[in-house]
Amino acid sequence: MKARIAVLGGDGIGPEVTAEAVRVLQAVAARHGHEFEFVEALVGGAAIDASGSPLPPRTIDACRTSAAVLLGAVGGPQWSDPAARVRPEQGLLELRRTLGVFANLRPVRTQPCLLDASPLRPEVIRDVDIMVVRELTGGIYFGRKSRTAYEAEDVCSYSATEIERVTRVAGRLAMGRRRHIVSVDKANVLETSRLWRSVVERVLGEEFPEVRFEHMLVDAAAMHLLRRPTSFDVLLTENMFGDILTDEASMLAGSLGLLPSASLGETSVGLYEPIHGSAPDIAGRGIANPLGTILSAALLLRHSLGLEREAAAVEAAVGDALAAGLRTADIAPAGAGSVGSRAAGDAVIDRLSG
Predict the structure, then answer these.
(1) Collapsing DSSP states into helix, strand and coil, what is residue 104?
(2) 348 shares a domain with 316
């Protein structure tokens, strides 16, 4: 297979972790006879510094003409002025809108060898396997905004169509898993959540009768994710709730640095990125955990390129490396040694099957 992949390193540790994911993809291509072309482009704060825009036209063109987009992270203290007219995060939001990626998939799985890395008891998190499906282009992040010196407004709005399409993604995923969906909302307070609840009921009832589903208020979901995480299979949620809950769920796996994501739309061109931020405090030191980005590259192989065998090989290599003792600083026990980003990438590449 020949494929063009846009690589947007972004800010902070973004370029460091995407570099390791690219090396893994290059190793996959060499072992399986594929040809991957990587096109680098700017996004976020780095793009603001270079062009004044967090998403320059050249970056948009690179993404639109690629089979998939691999992204690191955006943001940092030098661009964090709340009064700034242009911010790095605007580039990420606009990129999602431009690509039409409305369903964000965030798998959360615990590794048996990392149960002690979580602050939760091992018996609580053993065998956790959750697929979070987060609606990505609606809700309060994309609603009308206004601000004066004395008040501000962020409007949360959803259409039935937006809810229908992300519900169908969750339904299809549930059919290939344990056929159970928990739909998260705040229907006791919010009108958008009441619409969300009614549309989810209709779509799942009419189109996925084999799937068992239930509704859960977001505050209860936050509690049960920590209390009984193994009871969740597919978790369906709106934009902001999904953003918050998946950061919480990262503590089940042991670190934000371990979790990947895939943002998908109606076409095969997806956006793949770790769920962590730019971590400016450790940027440039070569110690960032690249495994979330490498696992995002595995999702890229699966969802955009249709290479299931290769995707599974990358995921297995990550698991084998961790089982063999690979520990970056974020998951190493206190006082124990750790490896840097490059060594972590090497460990995965060394365990890739041919």
Answers:
(1) strand
(2) yes
Q: Say how many domains are in the chain.
A: 2
pLDDT in tens, 95-145: 999 999 999 999 999 999 999 888 899 999 999 999 999 999 999 998 999
Q: Is the pLDDT of residue 160 over 90?
A: yes
Residues 216 and 163 in one domain: yes
Q: How far apart, in whole angstroms, are the C-alpha atoms of residue 61 and residue 273?
A: 19
Strand partners, 69: 6, 271
Nearest to 287 by CA among 330, 241, 252: 330
Residue 312 lies in a domain: yes
Give the pLDDT of residue 354. 64
Q: Which two tokens stand for residue 253?
A: 């796996």
Structure tokens at 35: 């040809």
Ramachandran region, residue 51 (left: φ > 0; alpha: ψ -120 to 50; beta: rest): alpha
Given a contact cutoff of 8 angstroms between Cβ atoms, the answer to whether 136 and 237 are in contact is no
Query: Token pair for residue 254?
Result: 């042991």
Would 93 be classed as within a structural domain?
yes
pTM score over 0.85: yes
State the CATH number of the domain containing residue 102: 3.40.718.10
pLDDT at 353: 79
Cα–Cα distance measured from residue 276 to residue 13, given in angstroms and rounded to the nearest whole number: 10
Query: Are residues 263 and 196 part of one domain?
Result: no
Residue 15 reports pLDDT greater than 70: yes
Do 97 and 7 fall into the same domain?
yes
What is the rounded (10 degree) CA torsion for 280, 282, 286, 292? -70
What is the rounded average pLDDT of the residues 208-231?
Answer: 97
Secondary structure class of 293 (helix, strand, coil): helix
Mean of pLDDT over the chain: 95
Cα separation, 14 vs 288, in Å, equals 9
DSSP sequence for 165-204 = HHHHHHHHHHHTTTSEEEEEE-TTT-HHHHHHHHHHHHHH
Q: How confident is the model at residue 48 (pLDDT cuts 50, 70, 90)?
A: very high
Burial class of residue 132, CB neighbours in 10 A (0-12, 13-18, 19+): buried
- Please identify every residue annotated as catalytic: 141, 186, 219, 243, 247
